[in-house]
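Data card: per-record layout.
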Amino acid sequence: MSQVKVYGRRSAWAGRQQEVSDLVQASLHEAWKLPEDKRFHRFLLLEAEDWIVPGRGERYLILEILCFEGRTPDAKRALIRTLYRELTGGLGLDAADLEITIIETPQVNWGIRGVPGDELALTYPVRL
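The structure for this 128-residue chain is written out next.
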C-alpha cells in the first residue's frame, strides 16, 4: 500500500495533475511492482504566498510517499532513482526542483477496506 502527496505551486502545476500522477505511478510500478489500479495520489497545490521555498524554481515539487514498512533500502533507492529519472525527464524538471520523502509505518497502523492493514490480502509485494 502506498499513498502519494504531491506539493507544488498552483500556478505551475494546476491542470497537470494527471501527467504528474502517470509518471509517479509508472515509477511505483517499475520500482515497487505496484499495480496500476493501486493509485492513491493527492495534489496539494498552493498559492505563491503559501509556498515559501527560497532558492527553488517556480516548478519545485515535493513528493511524500506514505507506505507500509518492509521495503529494503535498495528498494527505496530504486524508487527514488526511478522517480528522479521519470519526473525530471518527463516534466523537464531540474533535479534540484524535486524532493522526495518516503514515510513508512507498520501495516497494523493502516485501516483499509474495514480491516487493519496487516490483515489485508495484497496482490503485490511489500517486502522487496
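Known properties of this structure: The radius of gyration is 15 Å. Residues 2-119 form a domain with the Macrophage Migration Inhibitory Factor fold (CATH 3.30.429.10).

See the next section for split statistics.
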